C-alpha cells in the first residue's frame, strides 16, 4: 500500500509540472509582439542617455615673475548629450586639446587662484566650456567636469 501512495505522489507531481510547462509555453507563444515603435523608442532612450568623454591629463605651468612657479595637472571629462555627441567630440579631439592649451597655457597665474594658493575651478571650467563651444559647437557639451587637480610648487 505504501508503494501505491508513492506512485500517486509522483504522478501528481508529473502532471503539475506538465501543466505548468504547458501554461508558460502557451503564454510566451501568445504574448503580444513587441511593436517596432517600441523598439525605436527604446533605441532613442538608449541614445539619449548621458555620455562622457575623458581627455588625457593636461599638464600646465603656472607662470610668475621669475618663470614657472608651479606645475598644475588637470583631468578633464566632458559631459555630452548622447552617443552621437561622443563621436562628434572624439572626431575633434586634436582641435579641442589645442583650444584648451591656448586657453590655459600661460594664463594660470594669480587671477586664477583662490586665496592665493588653490585654483578657482569655477573659472577654469567656464573658460574651458567657452573654448569647447568654439570647437564643437554650442550645446554639444553640456558641462566640463574637472575630475582631478594636482598642483605642485617648484620652489
Task: Annotate the secondary structure layout.
Layout: H1 2-29, H2 36-47, E1 51-54, E2 58-64, E3 67-80, H3 83-91, H4 93-104, E4 113-114, E5 118-119, H5 121-136, E6 141-153
Antiparallel strand pairs: 1-3, 2-3, 3-6, 4-5
Concise summary:
By secondary structure, the protein is an alpha+beta fold. It has five helices and six strands, in the order ααβββααββαβ. A hairpin with a 3-residue loop joins strand 4 (113-114) and strand 5.
CATH class of the largest domain reads: Alpha Beta
Radius of gyration: 30 Å
By CATH, the topology of the largest domain is Tetrahydropterin Synthase, Chain A
Overall form: elongated
State the domain count. 2
Number of extended strands? 6
Give the fraction of residues assigned to helices: 40-55%
- Secondary structure tally, helices: 5
Assembly level: single chain
Written as H for each helix and E for each strand, in order along the chain, the element string is HHEEEHHEEHE
| First-residue to last-residue Cα separation | 97 Å
Strand content: 25-35%
The overall pLDDT average reads 77
Structural class: alpha+beta
Largest sheet: 4 strands, antiparallel
Please name the fourth-level CATH homologous superfamily of the largest domain. Answer: Band 7 domain
CATH architecture of the largest domain: 2-Layer Sandwich
Uncertain stretches = none
Structural write-up:
The chain has 155 residues and is an alpha+beta fold. It folds into 2 domains: 45 residues; 105 residues, 2-Layer Sandwich (Tetrahydropterin Synthase, Chain A), CATH 3.30.479. The protein is built from 5 helices and 6 strands; from the N terminus they run ααβββααββαβ. Strands 1, 2, 3 and 6 form a 4-stranded antiparallel β-sheet that branches. It has a two-stranded antiparallel sheet with strand order 4-5. Strand 2 and strand 3 form a beta hairpin. The model has no long low-confidence stretch (mean pLDDT 77).
